[in-house]
């Protein structure tokens, strides 16, 4: 039974249904579950846990790599089992519960979650639920389309439930590089000096006795929901390509560019696709999520190698990539998220980090997470891991949202995820502001003239003139700093009162 998928024969009698395995989870537990931006998530256990909770009320802390597919966060939220959730999510139902204060959400840098676990900050990890394509002869777990936090969950948990997913190709075997750091404070350096370096093992090594249940599933990953490029994201890509060309002319970059990190979502994916029609070549990525654009660039011969923690692609690209893994074997590696997002490697490689902002202020502070300063969108994800340590931290956003009712450039961000010290470049479809080497007062004109939407420029200039009355290194008229946000909250538009 499943000889090619469960090669350690002694484990085959641990195959059971998801409903039976769900009985290993109980009230008050801490559960680690695989899944990183919809890839490699446990497919059957979330629904089985919701079903168990209907008979056996329970609440637990759920830790994943990042977001889950298959509406799992919705299912678990509706079942009322989530006491605490971390470190990232993108689900509308869970978002609602978080913003009503019903689920406690810990919005965490993605590289840090397992450090907290190792240090015992969450108590012990009771159960790990890990999707795999196989268990090897020696009991090694072969992850699927993501690694995320799965390796450390399996290593740290008391009990491990493995979901063997027949829909995930065995060709993933050998694509992972599992490196686990030693204990602090005597930890050795992380020995990655190039994007394609392999420094660990291809499987997650644990004592097979800890594998308490094996579930057989046959469900593909949810497809990415990033939208195709539109006119504005193409303009953003255009500004960035032009900027990189300018940096090449000045001798500060070469046409291969440093390795690139690209964040999640429509904008980052579209911007990366923009490299297809650019003079740049032999590109590499050291990123966390590999989206459609990564494979478009590899297929076009523009990208030589991509290192990530997950592959999250559209349905079409899933068929193309997962159906032809051999073609990509020497061009890809999947790593644990604490390695893909490791500050040491990011700093060493001098990455170009490209992430998306909800809003940025006239001084270059960025809010990526809190709509209106209060309501959680998705979470900081890996953007902070990368922005702080990259050689060039770029934040992209459309200049307006919701049909122009929201300006993405504001006097003061209502929540700060990336402060002015970490943000190097701001880019919108309007243009690009290179903030490097500029003092706060020097940044203002550039941000307003190059990045803000024309319909908001006068309002922002007027704010800055007012702020100058109070002087300071970073002038602000505090009583007006959130005027635009308050207009949006109370009157439905940041422009309210300005129209006539
Ligand atoms: N205020 C309120 N809503 C805003 C907004 C603002 N200033 N700016 C954008 N939005 C809304 C958009 O209207 C859109 O809403 P919709 O889904 O109802 O259409 C939504 O936010 C997404 O914006 P979009 O412009 O389509 O960009 P995106 O899909 O690239 O997502 C982020 C942008 C910021 C939400 C997303 O990149 C994110 O969660 N980032 C944080 C995590 C991260 O950076 N990870 C990177 C490492 S993986």
Q: What distinguishing features does this structure have?
A:
alpha/beta; five-stranded mixed beta sheet; globular; 500 residues; 17 helices; eight-stranded mixed beta sheet; binds coenzyme A
Overall pLDDT level = 96
| Ligand species | coenzyme A
What is the CA-CA span between the terminal residues? 74 Å
Could you say which overall geometry the principal axes of the C-alpha atoms support? globular
Helix % is: 25-40%
What share of residues are in beta strands?
A: 15-25%
Oligomer: single chain
Show unreliable segments: none
List how many beta strands DSSP finds. 25
**DSSP helix count?**
17
Largest sheet, if any?
Answer: 8 strands, mixed
Rg, Å, rounded: 23 Å
Give the arrangement of secondary structure elements:
Layout: H1 18-22, E1 30-33, H2 45-55, E2 60-63, H3 72-78, E3 82-86, H4 92-99, E4 104-105, H5 113-118, E5 127-135, E6 141-143, H6 150-156, E7 159-165, E8 211-217, H7 231-249, E9 260-262, H8 265-273, E10 283-286, E11 289-290, H9 292-299, E12 303-308, E13 310-311, H10 315-322, H11 325-328, E14 332-334, H12 337-340, H13 343-349, E15 352-356, E16 359-361, E17 366-367, E18 370-371, E19 375-376, H14 383-389, E20 392-396, E21 400-401, E22 406-407, E23 409-410, E24 425-428, E25 431-434, H15 440-451, H16 454-468, H17 483-491
Parallel strand pairs: 1-2, 1-5, 2-3, 3-4, 5-7, 7-8, 9-15, 10-12, 11-13, 12-14, 15-20, 16-23, 20-24
Antiparallel strand pairs: 5-6, 16-17, 18-19, 21-22, 24-25
The structure holds coenzyme A.
